[in-house]
Amino acid sequence: MGKQLDLLLQAPLSPTGKVQLRVVDVLGFAGITLLGVFARFALMNYVSGDYTTFLEGWFNELQAAGGIRGIGLSIGDYTPPYLYLMALLTYLPLNSLYSIKLLSCVFDLLLAGSMLRRFAARRYSPAALLGIYAAVLFTPTILLNSAYWAQCDVIFTFFVVQSLFCGLEKRPLASCVYFGIAFSLKLQSIFFLPVLALLFLKDRLKFRHLLAIPGVYLLSILPAWIAGRPLSELLTIYFRQSGQYSRLCMNAPNLWYLIGDNRTSGLSLLAIFLTLAGVLFSLYLLYRFPFSLTRGNLLLAALYFSLLLPYLMPHMHERYFFLADVLALLYACWRPRRFYLSLLVGFSSLAGYLPFLFGQSPIDLRFAALGITVALGICIRDLYKPLFRPKERWNRLM
Asked: Which of 230, 242, 348, 360 is the most buried (most CB within 10 A)?
């Protein structure tokens, strides 16, 4: 009987495919998926402050207005695409808390599935693919952000990751379209914008491709405008968002938390200029000196900028390193020797969640900010070390 069971579990399912799957592998993926779903259901009863202050009211307004018929109302400070999705959720036979969390959890699975598909194309072993899939589903910040906090950071991050994959595959138009969708959902998608600028500088995409980004945004607000929402309001949503908070740091583990000036906006303008200078100088070095746009290097550049911008920008919230969490995991899967980067970024980012979600700080956020600083330093070393090896390049810099 044991031998028969072993033969059944080891039976091949895809003898002609890129990955040689067996019955036991499929059962493993099914088991991890079920565990991921059950883990999310276990967290769904928690009611966060963001849900009661913002999301619940927006959902109720849309529901009272008839779901889709309410998309022309001036509700909340999120862009229309998320409100479209929320309007569709009002038709589900679930309460608003479960509906909102369910949407983000679906994108958790989509993100894990998309990474699984890309790495399967690289002929990773079934065991490695199962590990990658499980890592995405059970990364603490991904799990807590969607199922516990009722946030939607995974949705825009999913589209940023698709944009990155298309950039790796030399599909410039698709890359810009996906980024346009991400930008239409969340302003934090701009943490990926320098990567598109790098692709442009390296002649991997053209200016006409970049036009897809505002084009997608304009298309995304069109239904709300037709439904009656003022166009001027739709075009300035992100400007209003950026002026909502005056504190230099909103508990993000970044440079400004290390400095400790957490209550004043006096340094905000300096922080903006410092961010612009950091991004522009980084792009200058990557353009001016030999930098090969291999897949690994492009992934590293994406991780670097997803850390650099929220590290230097003012008014960053505790969950604004979410994109970096995902990209650090993606980079670790691509270059396993850098697995500790994912642990370092994920741990530091998670430390920022704890005070808001659980009302206590078992980890001093200054240590978390130092963790992000170290991770950023490792990225800088790996990204720019070809520039600093030969002495003749040093001479050109002097």
From this structure: 348
- Strand segments, DSSP code E, in 196-293 are 249-250
351-387: pLDDT as tens digits? 999 998 988 888 889 999 999 999 999 999 999 876 6
Tokens describing residue 373: 């600083």
Task: Please report which confidence band the pLDDT of residue 395 belongs to, taking 50, 70 and 90 as the band edges.
Answer: very low
Q: Where are the domains of the chain?
A: 245-398
Structure tokens at 319: 């969950």
Nearest CA-CA partner of 241 in 281, 189, 201 = 189
- Show the CA angle centred on residue 6, arms to residues 5 and 7, nearest 5°: 90
> How many Cβ atoms are within 10 Å of 239's Cβ, its own excluded?
9
* Termini Cα distance of the chain: 74
| pLDDT reported for residue 264 | 57
With H, G, I as helix, E, B as strand and everything else as coil, classify residue 206: coil
For residues 194 and 283, give the distance between their C-alpha atoms in angstroms, rounded to a whole number.
Answer: 8
